[in-house]
TrEMBL record:
Protein name: Non-heme iron oxygenase ferredoxin subunit
Organism: Thermomonas beijingensis
InterPro entries for the chain: Rieske_2Fe-2S, Rieske_2Fe-2S_sf
Keyword Iron among record annotations: yes
Domain Rieske: 6-105
Entry keywords, A to Z: 2Fe-2S, Iron, Iron-sulfur, Metal-binding
PANTHER family associated with the record: 3-PHENYLPROPIONATE_CINNAMIC ACID DIOXYGENASE FERREDOXIN SUBUNIT, FERREDOXIN-RELATED
Signal sequence coordinates: none
Pfam family, one: Rieske
Source organism, top-level taxon: Bacteria
Protein backbone atom coordinates (compact mmCIF):
# COMPACT_ATOMS: atom_id res chain seq x y z
CA UNK A 1 0.00 0.00 0.00
CA UNK A 2 1.27 3.44 -0.92
CA UNK A 3 1.46 6.45 1.39
CA UNK A 4 1.56 8.79 -1.61
CA UNK A 5 -1.56 10.87 -2.18
CA UNK A 6 -2.60 12.07 -5.64
CA UNK A 7 -3.77 15.63 -6.28
CA UNK A 8 -7.24 15.76 -7.89
CA UNK A 9 -8.15 19.45 -7.88
CA UNK A 10 -8.68 22.35 -5.50
CA UNK A 11 -11.79 22.42 -3.32
CA UNK A 12 -13.02 25.41 -5.36
CA UNK A 13 -12.97 23.21 -8.49
CA UNK A 14 -15.18 20.49 -6.98
CA UNK A 15 -18.48 22.00 -5.92
CA UNK A 16 -21.43 20.08 -4.44
CA UNK A 17 -23.01 17.89 -7.12
CA UNK A 18 -19.81 17.69 -9.17
CA UNK A 19 -17.26 14.95 -9.79
CA UNK A 20 -13.64 14.94 -10.95
CA UNK A 21 -11.34 12.14 -12.09
CA UNK A 22 -7.67 11.64 -11.33
CA UNK A 23 -5.21 8.81 -11.90
CA UNK A 24 -3.40 7.44 -8.85
CA UNK A 25 0.27 8.45 -9.12
CA UNK A 26 1.51 4.98 -8.13
CA UNK A 27 -0.97 2.46 -9.56
CA UNK A 28 -2.42 4.50 -12.45
CA UNK A 29 -5.91 3.58 -11.23
CA UNK A 30 -8.60 6.01 -12.39
CA UNK A 31 -10.39 7.45 -9.35
CA UNK A 32 -13.61 9.47 -9.47
CA UNK A 33 -14.15 11.92 -6.62
CA UNK A 34 -17.72 13.00 -5.87
CA UNK A 35 -18.87 16.02 -3.87
CA UNK A 36 -22.13 15.00 -2.22
CA UNK A 37 -23.47 17.94 -0.21
CA UNK A 38 -19.96 18.98 0.82
CA UNK A 39 -18.78 15.46 1.69
CA UNK A 40 -16.15 13.95 -0.62
CA UNK A 41 -16.17 10.31 -1.70
CA UNK A 42 -13.76 8.48 -4.01
CA UNK A 43 -14.48 5.37 -6.08
CA UNK A 44 -12.58 3.51 -8.75
CA UNK A 45 -13.74 5.01 -12.03
CA UNK A 46 -14.73 1.63 -13.44
CA UNK A 47 -18.08 -0.16 -13.53
CA UNK A 48 -17.83 -3.66 -12.06
CA UNK A 49 -20.19 -5.01 -14.72
CA UNK A 50 -18.03 -3.97 -17.68
CA UNK A 51 -14.76 -2.13 -17.97
CA UNK A 52 -16.26 1.31 -18.52
CA UNK A 53 -15.77 4.70 -16.85
CA UNK A 54 -18.40 5.60 -14.28
CA UNK A 55 -17.47 9.25 -14.75
CA UNK A 56 -18.96 9.08 -18.26
CA UNK A 57 -22.36 8.49 -16.65
CA UNK A 58 -24.71 10.59 -14.57
CA UNK A 59 -23.97 11.56 -10.96
CA UNK A 60 -27.27 12.16 -9.15
CA UNK A 61 -26.38 14.41 -6.23
CA UNK A 62 -29.91 14.07 -4.83
CA UNK A 63 -29.68 10.32 -4.34
CA UNK A 64 -25.90 9.96 -4.08
CA UNK A 65 -25.81 7.56 -7.02
CA UNK A 66 -23.69 7.34 -10.14
CA UNK A 67 -25.07 5.49 -13.15
CA UNK A 68 -22.92 3.72 -15.71
CA UNK A 69 -23.91 5.05 -19.11
CA UNK A 70 -23.14 1.72 -20.80
CA UNK A 71 -25.82 -0.56 -19.28
CA UNK A 72 -27.46 1.45 -16.49
CA UNK A 73 -25.81 -0.11 -13.44
CA UNK A 74 -26.00 2.22 -10.43
CA UNK A 75 -23.64 2.58 -7.49
CA UNK A 76 -23.81 4.46 -4.19
CA UNK A 77 -20.96 6.99 -4.21
CA UNK A 78 -20.70 6.83 -0.40
CA UNK A 79 -19.62 3.18 -0.23
CA UNK A 80 -19.42 1.85 -3.81
CA UNK A 81 -22.29 -0.59 -3.30
CA UNK A 82 -23.96 -1.87 -6.47
CA UNK A 83 -27.61 -0.78 -6.36
CA UNK A 84 -29.07 -2.60 -9.37
CA UNK A 85 -28.37 -5.10 -12.13
CA UNK A 86 -26.45 -5.69 -14.25
CA UNK A 87 -23.77 -4.93 -11.61
CA UNK A 88 -23.63 -7.08 -8.49
CA UNK A 89 -20.15 -6.34 -7.17
CA UNK A 90 -19.30 -3.05 -5.42
CA UNK A 91 -16.87 -0.54 -6.86
CA UNK A 92 -13.62 -0.08 -4.91
CA UNK A 93 -13.78 2.84 -2.49
CA UNK A 94 -10.67 4.91 -1.75
CA UNK A 95 -9.65 7.40 0.92
CA UNK A 96 -10.00 11.08 0.08
CA UNK A 97 -8.77 14.03 2.12
CA UNK A 98 -8.53 17.80 1.89
CA UNK A 99 -5.25 19.49 2.77
CA UNK A 100 -4.51 23.18 2.25
CA UNK A 101 -7.47 23.54 -0.10
CA UNK A 102 -6.40 20.56 -2.21
CA UNK A 103 -8.45 17.40 -2.77
CA UNK A 104 -6.22 14.31 -2.55
CA UNK A 105 -6.89 10.57 -3.09
CA UNK A 106 -4.94 7.33 -3.09
CA UNK A 107 -5.40 3.72 -4.12
CA UNK A 108 -5.00 2.02 -0.73
CA UNK A 109 -5.35 -1.57 -1.93
Amino acid sequence: MSDIWTFVCTTAELLPGEMKVAFDDITGTPIAVFNLDGMLYALEDQCTHEDFELSAGHFDAGSGEVECVLHGAKFDVRDGKALCAPAYEPVAKFPVKVENGQVLVRDDR
